[in-house]
Each structure stands twice: as structure tokens, then as C-alpha cells.
Amino acid sequence: MSILNHKHSLLALVSLFIFGLCPATANTVETLYLDVSINKRALPNFVEVRKEGDTFWLSESEIKALSLNTDNLAKQDGWVQLTPQQGIKIDYDPLSQSLSIMASEHWLAGAQKPNIPGQGFLLTENQIAPEIKGGVLNYDLFASHDTYSKNISAFTELRLIGYGSGHLTTSFNNQLSRTPQSTDNKFNRLMTTWQTSNVDTLNTFMLGDGITGGQSWSNQVRFGGVHLSHNYTVQPNYNITSKPIYSNTAVLPSTVDLYIDGIRNSTQRVDPGQFTLNTAPHFSGAGNAQLIITDINGQQQKIDVSLYNTNQLISKGLYTWDLSLGWLREDYNERSFGYNSKLMLVGDGRYGVTDNLTLTGHNETNSALQNIGAGYHWLVAPYLGVIQGNMAWSQYQNQSGTQWGAGWQWNNSQFSLSVNHQQRENNYADVATQTGNLMPRKSDNAFMSWSFETLGTLGGGWISRDYPSTQVQYANLSWSKTYTNFLTVSINGARELGSRQNSSMYLMVSIPLSTENYVSLQTNYDNKRVNQQIQYRHNLLPDKSGWGGGITQQLGENNNLHIDLINRSASNEWQVGYNRDRNDNNYYVSSNGAIGVLDEHVYFMRRLGNAFAIADTSGVPDIPIYLQNIEVGKTDKQGRLLLNDLYGYEPQKIRINALSLSADYRIKDTEKIIVPREGNGTLVSFNLYRANALLLNVKQNSGIEIPFAASVSIHRNNASNDDVEKTLVGYGSQIYLENWQTVQSIDVVWPKGKCQISLPQMNDSAEAFVEKEVICF
User: Fold this and answer.
1) Among 339-348, 437-446, 655-664, where is mean pLDDT lowest?
2) What is the rounded distance in angstroms from the CA atom of residue 273 to the CA atom of residue 271?
3) Which of 107, 138, 166 is the last residue before a domain boundary?
4) Residue 171: alpha-carbon gap to chain centroid
5) CA–CA separation, 752 vs 396, rounded Å?
6) Who contacts 524 (Cβ-Cβ below 8 Å, separation ≥6)?
7) Please, what is the Cα angle at 101 between 44 and 109, to 5 degrees?
8) Alpha-carbon distances, residue 481 vs 327, 456, 591, 613 (angstroms)
9) Which phi and psi angles does 73 have, rounded to 5°?
10) Which helix (H) or strand (E) holds 222?
């Protein structure tokens, strides 16, 4: 038996030896979960990797995350094969369970677009703050009295918000004039409009009175009807002129610093792979940018880029359009309901063909008119500027005509130059001609300005207008310089060219005495008449309450005096003034502000602006409110403050000064960021509450103190067992409670015992906290 076993063992050894000499017919596939990195950039999570000998398989999604070019890699059922080859080195470490890939530049792909400040962001509808209900009446009142007449005028605008989508506004103008011979009273409706917008679709819909869209080479008119537009006015934080300025491939993780005109604009990280850098500089015109790319080894690349920024262009693929359908408004401010009987349609559009070329279009149609035109804005090069051209054709009353124009503009931080020409035939017509407007047959203008560091700013311009019966031309030159932020000197001269040759010139010296006070001295020359003027003014700071005013005395052939006094408060702004012109005396008084009922509260305020918010501190008065870190006021007796001049669709930070609260107040959030809708308002609630703190000095029925750190369970009225609050007994057998009025019972448990506390009857107190002696039974 032993001999037989020995033979079997020998046979097994021989078989194993022979099997070891034979080559393997196939590699087994292992599924591993590894830390994967490429060019020293690690993916954030473990990656499923299939290992087959020296070959590794990764899913296509993981390969995409690695920014690898897969054109020359084998693929099978959603997996991509990685093998060591020229340009790719693979290092697998089974001990650390990691897979390190080093790839050369031509193996890297991807489309990174680092987020650059200034490029902006798009809002969504769910970011818009909820709207409150109410109505506001803006008013602007003016009354004057002089030797010959008495005048009173009132401009009012009613705005209703929160009743359905959007907001409704209607405005009126009332004028009363009285002279010894007559009395004239006019009351007119100006505009009535309901408007709603959607930031997701970029669409704005208006019903009622409005103004048609237009291009730089077309005219806009008032009308009544419907207006639908698609543009980025509802996305003011998104820069539609951003463009790619540099593309490259990063082999290693790198940092890209963007400098514009020598000032660092942003710092961004880029991963290995291809990246494109977009920018939307805040300057207008030409400028220089420098990119400094630093990899993790400290090696740097410096790239110089020329930029040109202008709002005449929009980025590639972006577009805007608007349509106006309705009836032309006639005799505006003379008749409340003056509309032309012809239904008209006006359309406009812009499209970014490339980042440097934008096309424009315009169309006007009614039963008697056809007008269609197109134009372009083209950035030839950053150092050559923008050229523009347009052409339009019209047919009106069986007569056709054309209009064409061209222009060029270039500017940088120191120099600007623009030239424009517009020409139309006598028979050319558009909707504006139906209102009786006389359009020039030819318009030309040229403007130039040049800023010198030591010599100041020099400017000049020329304007020419040719009408069927006359020609008007003007030329002007100006120069100004500020000396050591203390003294500003300005000289301006203008001359009417042609037969009339009227001339004017002024020299002004402005001396600031403080941020709010200044004195100016001025000499005027106007058609051979010379006047001197001295002025003192105390200005009000923007959005600040206080007193302001000034006095102006003019001497010479036109001798006059002006005095005014201004007061601005949280509820309105008023002004009184006196004018004396030779022997004529004029007195006036004006006031503007608003009255509103918002969220069931009455407010007297300054004019309601583009948007507003109401800060609510849960009835707590005299709490300082800050807008963008600037104090704008304190809450009233009801714990509210109206912020009446916000910007629609702009994120705005509103916070309270929690340090002004007494120790017994609690608040979860002291700062909130809101995005109000244009024309509407929102309620910003800071949920303040008094803690009503109670400090219990607890003893057992035997007079012994409760052990330190004993467990405390607080049961409140109308609370479930899951809502039981937990705390601990402090030093000296003390228990701290807040909002003790709702406490039903308190259970105390420690290793050697337990007891229960029932609170005694107590009255509310103004103290920060109340201290009581209680027995735990």
C-alpha cells in the first residue's frame, strides 16, 4: 500500500512539473477597485478596474473623467483597454491598491472651461424670491409761483404686485396753470402696462403701453398692444460678450492666473487635459491680458493675449429678439387714449455668428408701410476695432426708399475714436415718420477723447445733420484735469458751423471741500455775452437721509440768483427753492415719495425703485439692517424696515446686526441673500424670538442636590415622545431651560435614582433669565 501511494505522489509531482512548463492559454480577469490617477491628478472615488495580465480595462465614463483621448484605444462593450505603449506609462501597485497613469500631451483630451469672474452666471426661477401682495403709489409733486403765473403739477404711478404673475403699473400726469387771464387744467393717462418675465426662458411679456425695440440704425416709438421679447435683461449677471481667449493642453495639474492690464483678475485650477479659458473683461475697448500657467512642479508659461470688449457684440450662438404688435401712440402726454388706427408689427433680432461677428435685423409692417433692414457689427481685430454697417428698404404710400449706414469705433483705457455715417433717401419711411417726426437725410458724427497721465483728458466732437430745408453742424473741444484730488479744471468750447456760427465757451474750476461740499467758479461766453458764476453746494450722500442744498449767483449780462434747500428722510424727499432772473422772482416747492400697502402694512417711503424688500425681525424694533454690508436703517415699532431701491434679478445680501440684540434673543440666520423680481418685492424674515430662559436650582425631596451630568428629559405641551428634548444637569445641581412656558414636565435620571420636576406658576419677566428653586420628587 505504501508503494502504491509513493507511485501516486511521484506521478502528481511530474504532472505539476509538466503543467508548469506549458504556457498559459488565457489570463484570468480580476475586478479591482483602485485609486486611479493621471499625471498626478487622482480621481475622487474608487474606480472599478478589470485587470487582465498587464492590461487594464476602465469604463468609458471613467476614461472621460481622466480626459484621455480614446481614438487609438481598443473598446469593448463600454470598456476601454489601457496597455503600456508609447506616450502612456501604467504603474499598478497592489500594496496601495492604486493605478497611476502618466500620459503625454497628445494622449490628453477634454474640454475644461474654468469659471472666470466676470463671465457671470444664469439665474433660475426657483432662485427668485417669493413675491408679496400690495400696491404702491409713487408721486412727484411740484408747485411754483412767479410774477405772471401759478403752476401745480403732479406725476403719479400706481403699481400693483403679487396678484398673479408679474406686476401692473399705470401712470398719470396732472397740470394746473393759472394766469391773470386764464386757467388751464390738464389730466392725462401716460402708460398702463402689465409685465411678467421668466428667467429660465429669458422671455418677457408685456400687455398695454410700451416702446418698440430697435437697432442703433432704427427708430423706436411708443405704442399700445403686446410686446414679447427674448433677451438677457432678466439675467443681468450673465455677460453675453464673453469669449474664449486661450486654449491649450495641461499635462500636469496646473494653476492659471489671468492678469488684465497688469491687475490679477482671477486664479483657477485646471486638471490634466485640454482646457479653454473664457473671459469677459469689465473694461470697454482694447486691453491686454497675460496668462501665467504654473504646474505642480513649479514650471511656468507666460502667454500674452490682446482683448477687445464691446456691448455691440454677443457671444457665438447667443441671440435676442423682440416683437411688438399694436397701435402707434399719438399725442403722448396730450391725450390719454390717442392711438393710430393702423395695426402695426415691429420685430428686432441679434445673433452671434462668431464671437467677433454679430448680425442684426429689423422689420416694421402696417397696412401702408413695409420696412425691412439688416446690419452687422464686426470686430476685425483687437487693434483695429469694430466696424458696423446697415441697409434698410421701405415702401410707403406706393413709394420706395432706402437707408444705409456705416461706422467704425476703437478705444482703450486712454484713447477712443468713433466715426459714423447714416444716409436715407427722401422717400424712405418707417413707423416714426407716421408720428410727424422729421428725419435727417444724412447724419454724420465723429468723436475723440485722449487721456494723458499728466496733461488731463482732451476731447472733441463733430456732428452734422442734413434736413430737406436746412443743414446743422456743431463742433466742440473740451479739456479737463484733476490736480491731487483737490482741484478740477474744465474748459469746453462749442461752435455752430455754417451760416449762423454761434459760439459758446466756459471755464470751470471745482474745489471739493469734503465728500459732501464743494465750491465751483465758472466763466461763460455765449454769443459775445460773458457771465461769471459762483456756486456752493452741499450734496446728500446716495440713499442717506439728511439736509442738502446750495446757492448759485450769476453775474454779468444775465444776472440771476438760485437758492434751494433739500431734505431727505425715510418717508419722502422735498425741496424748496427761489430763483431771481433780473426782475422776475420765482418760488417753488417739490416733493416726491410713495405711499404703499404691502403685506397688510402701510408704508410711507421714498420713491419705489426697480425692486424692493421688507426686512422683518418678528416685531423686534430698533434692529440695524444692512444691505451689502452698509447700514440702511433700523426696524420700526412693528419690527420692519422697507428697502425700497433694490435691483431686480440681482443677488443682494441683507443682514441684521445680531450684536444689538439682548442676551435672551435667539436667531438662526443673521444673513440672507435674496433675488427679487424686477418691479416686485419680497419679505425677508429673520425669525427672532426671546428665549425666556429659566435657571432651575434643583434639589431632591430629601434636600440633596442632583448629581452632576444626570440625564434630563424635557416634555413640552402638544409634543410627541419623539420630540423630547435632552440635556444634562450642570454644576451646582442646576438645569437651564428656554421657552419654559411650554414645558409640561421634566424627568431626571442618574445611575442611582430618578425624579420628576413640575414647574411652579410664574409670570413673564423682562429679565434675560429667571432663577428659581424647585424640588424634584
Assistant:
1) 655-664
2) 6
3) 107
4) 27
5) 103
6) 504, 505, 506, 530, 531, 532, 533, 556
7) 80
8) 50, 4, 36, 41
9) -110, 145
10) strand 222-230
Count of domains for the chain: 3
Cell numbers describing residue 15: 504532472
Report the sign of the C-alpha dihedral through residues 30, 35, 38, 39, in that order: negative
SS3 state at 531: strand
pLDDT band at 499; cut points 50, 70, 90: low
Q: The CATH number of the domain where 621 resides is what?
A: 2.60.40.2610
CB 263 within 8 Å of CB 270: no
The side-by-side arrangement of strands in the sheet containing 640-646 is 640-646, 611-616, 681-685
CA-closest candidate to residue 362, choices 353, 354, 373: 373
**For 260-287, how does the pLDDT look when each residue is reduced to its tens digit (9 = 90+)?**
766 777 777 777 766 666 665 656 667 7
Whether 80 and 59 share a structural domain: yes
Strand partners, 145: 150, 587
Helix (H) or strand (E) holding 138: strand 134-146
Q: Is residue 157 part of a domain?
A: no
pLDDT score at 205: 96
pLDDT of residue 13: 36
Q: What is the value of pTM for the model shown?
A: 0.75
The predicted-structure confidence for 43-78, as pLDDT tens digits, reads as follows: 888 888 888 888 899 988 888 888 888 888 888 888
Q: What whole-number distance in Å separates Cα of residue 576 and Cα of residue 84?
A: 86
Contact 687, 667 (CB under 8 A): yes
For residues 665 and 738, state if they share a domain: no
CATH number at residue 48: 3.10.20.410
Burial of 622 (0-12, 13-18, 19+ CB in 10 A): exposed
Residue 102 pLDDT = 85
pLDDT at 12: 37
> The C-alpha cell of 543 is what?
440713499
Q: Which domain holds residue 738?
A: 693-776
Tell me, yes or no, whether 704 and 653 share the same domain.
no
Vertex 707 angle, CA 704 and 710, to 5°: 135
CA distance 59 to 73: 12
CA 43/CA 38 separation, integer angstroms: 8
pLDDT higher than 60, residue 19? no
Q: What is the pLDDT of residues 566-605, one digit of tens each?
A: 999 988 999 999 999 878 899 999 999 999 999 989 999 9
> Do the beta carbons of residue 255 and residue 268 sit within 8 Å?
yes
Say what percent of the chain tops pLDDT 90.
Answer: 47
20: enclosing H helix or E strand: helix 2-21
For residue 13, the SS3 value is: helix
Angle at 291 between CA 289 and CA 295, to 5 degrees: 175
In-domain check, residue 684: yes
- For 447, other C-beta atoms within 10 Å of its C-beta total 17
Of 536, 542, 539, 544, which is closest to residue 562 (Cα–Cα)?
Answer: 536
* Domain end position, chosen among 641, 662, 690: 690
Residue 326 CB: number of other CB atoms within 10 A?
22
> Which of 339, 405, 345 is closest to 370 using CA atoms?
345
Question: Same domain for 697 and 717?
Answer: yes
Q: Rounded to whole angstroms, how far apart are CA atoms 409 and 415?
A: 11
Rounded Cα distance between 679 and 250, Å, is 47
Contact, 774 vs 696, CB < 8 A? yes
Neighbours of 66 (CB within 10 A): 26
User: Which three cell numbers mark 444?
Assistant: 454724420
